[in-house]
Amino acid sequence: MKNLVLFLFLVMFHVATSQSFLHRDGQNIVDKDGNNILLRGLGLGGWMVQEGYMLQTGAYAGPQHVIKEKIIDLIGEEKTKIFYDAYLANGITKRDIDSLAAWGFNSVRLPMHYNLYTPPIEDETTDEITWIEKGFKMTDDVLEWCKENKIYLILDLHAAPGGQGKDANISDYDTSKPSLWESDANQKKMIALWRKLANRYKDEPWVAGYDIINEPNWGFTGQNKNGCDETSNAPLRKLMVATTKAIREVDNNHIIFIEGNCWGNNYEGVLPVWDDNMVLSFHKYWNYNTLGSIQQMLDYRKQYNIPIWLGESGENSNVWFKDAISLVEKNNIGWAFWPMKKVDNIAGVTSVTMNPDFEIIKNYWKDGGEKPSEAFAFNALMQLAENYNMENVTIKPDVIDAMFRQVMTNTTIPFKKHTVPGIVYATEYDLGTNGYAYQDEDFINYKTDTGIQGPWNKGKKMRNDGVDIQLCKDDNSNGYEVFDIQDGEWLQYTVNAIEKGSYDILIRYSSTIKEAIIHLENEKKHISKPLLLTNTTDKSAIYKIVTFKDVKLVKGENKLKVVFDKGGIALNYLEFKIKK
Q1: Parallel, antiparallel, or unpaired: how do β-strands 40-43 and 334-338 relate?
Q2: CB atoms within 10 A of CB 9
Q3: Which residues of the chain have pLDDT under 70?
Q4: 3-class DSSP assignment, residue 39
Q5: Helix 184-201 and helix 234-248: axis angle, to 10°?
Q6: Could you tell me whether strands 480-482 and 394-395 are parallel, antiparallel, or unpaired per DSSP bridges?
Q7: To 10 degrees, what angle do helices 374-387 and 356-367 make?
């Protein structure tokens, strides 16, 4: 028995110590054997640092300190603490990290708020820096969950002491107090925090590295308040050099990720680098997925012989995700998309339910009126905190599919298993991209200096493709329907027929136009004659059913396209009935 215990210990020790630190090797991030490691990650945004837009309060309660003040006004400080304890406890758990690993992510970017680790400078009573164990314990937990899943953790100082940018929502910058750039004490605290973090995690190989200051956006000498026209960025470089020095006093193992000014993209005056284990990070939102959109970073990589990493991206359409990830991976660039959880959204891997009572609070903050009672507000906020638990969020398979499978192939797969006879809801068309799983005129969401190109997705419900989906009030629905259907668009469905034969396919729809025309196709040919769909608003029933007769299906898998020769309807579902 003793020999068995010793053997198991040695096996566990080997597993625990076989992992190596990632490091820079020329233009690559590699492991100890020199294998190139392409980080594919997700940022845990909105957890340690609340951003109002993730709660849908950004226009009137953006930075975390404003959100917290408004909550205190409703329920008092004691209950506010109870809410935030629940919010943090539910926001990220082991189940979240397990899910990310199962979906294909090999890394996690942890956006940290300094005030979970150390109090603000105005609360310090001596010249010594006070430490708070809560943030370190939360970080320890995430690291442990990452280690169990064999995925990397990147520590990201998202809200630095005082705030590092004029974009206050990101860094929780309070304009009534000195910023990071206006206070030596705040800079001293930031440097000390990184030294303490590095000392704590110096021997942890599943920590990929330290992203030492997220999205600085501050005008030092230029005209742009967010630092986009800075040509020297001297204060930024000086602080990052000092932070690096403090980290290297205790930790020579880990990569240091740096970000330029202007939300991580202006490196003028920041380069050349000052450390031999450093990676340049950049952020990419809303621009075109062309080589030109990343050319500056590619030039830096070649000029300074250093790896580059897309530290933040996302919040766009599935097609944009596929194209962006394809672009950077073809150019040997890892990535971390943003974020994991937002309230009532389609562009993330999950969506947090907006409970109706919190919406009442949100509307009160926005418009005023009758103040919700303390009991009502507390219950609403605690329900919101509960909704953040991974078991309560809505997972978005279409987003995950776009980020991984669709990058490699244009083939389609079912959104879910559809066995017929039975009902197939219109919004449950196949997973895949435009021209393969569906055909939509406005399927991609690009934004440039001239604004948004096309209306893209008009409904912004349920799925993040180009297909327009809205809420459906028909009791005979899954809560959603496809609408704004244009001439020539189509949707593909994979169904599994329990037996070969002739099926009647019933189409439930609503329409305000005089007539629409649809037909069915399989992968090779038309399998039905055109079907006329007339106006449904001239009767008491908003929805109507028409039927494709005697549609031949093979046993097993069938891929069917519903083609809208003449659009204009809202499509609820298809019901398959076998003919005996």
Answers
A1: parallel
A2: 10
A3: 1-18, 447-455, 538-541
A4: coil
A5: 30
A6: unpaired
A7: 120
Q: Which of 232, 210, 208, 209 is nearest to 220 (CA)?
A: 232
The tokens describing 545, both together, are 């059913």
Distance CA 480, CA 553 (A): 27
Q: Which residues fall within 8 angstroms of residue 567, CB to CB, at 6 or more apart?
A: 485, 486, 487, 488, 489, 516
Torsion of CA 85, 89, 90, 95, to 10 degrees: 180
Asked if 477 and 573 touch (Cβ cutoff 8 Å), the reply is yes
Rounded CA-CA distance 406/553 in Å is 27
CA distance linking residue 370 with residue 364, whole number of Å:
7
Element (H, E) at 383: helix 374-387
572 half-sphere exposure, CB direction, 13 A CA radius: 21
**Full 3-state SS string of 250-281:** CCCCCEEEEEEHHHHCECCCCCCCCCCCEEEE
pTM of the predicted model as reported, rounded to 2 decimal places: 0.94
Instruction: Answer for the pair 155, 206: CB distance below 8 angstroms, yes or no.
Output: no
Question: What's the 3-state SS for 97-108?
Answer: HHHHHHHCCCEE
Tokens representing 340 are 């994991």
- pLDDT tens, position by position, 367-418: 999 999 999 999 999 999 999 999 999 999 999 999 999 999 999 999 999 9
**Residue 554 contacts residue 497 (beta carbons within 8 Å):** yes
- The Cα–Cα gap between 425 and 274 comes to 57
The rounded distance, in Å, linking the Cα atoms of 67 and 87 is: 13
Burial of 6 (0-12, 13-18, 19+ CB in 10 A): exposed
Q: Of 481, 460, 496, 491, which is closest to residue 542 (Cα–Cα)? A: 481
The residue whose two tokens read 């299906």 is 553
List Cα–Cα distances, 501 to 265, 414, 520, 556, 572, in angstroms. 59, 21, 16, 11, 25
| CA atoms 474, 477, 481, 487: torsion sign | negative
Tokens matching residue 195 = 């030294």
Q: pLDDT for 428-469, tens place per residue?
A: 999 999 999 999 988 888 765 555 555 688 999 999 999 999
Question: Count of CB atoms within 10 A of residue 505's CB?
Answer: 24
DSSP three-state, residue 23: strand
For residue 161, is the peptide bond before it cis, meaning its omega torsion is within 30 degrees of 0? no
In contact, 348 and 399? CB cutoff 8 Å: yes
The answer, yes or no, to whether the previous bond of 119 is cis (omega within 30 of 0) is no
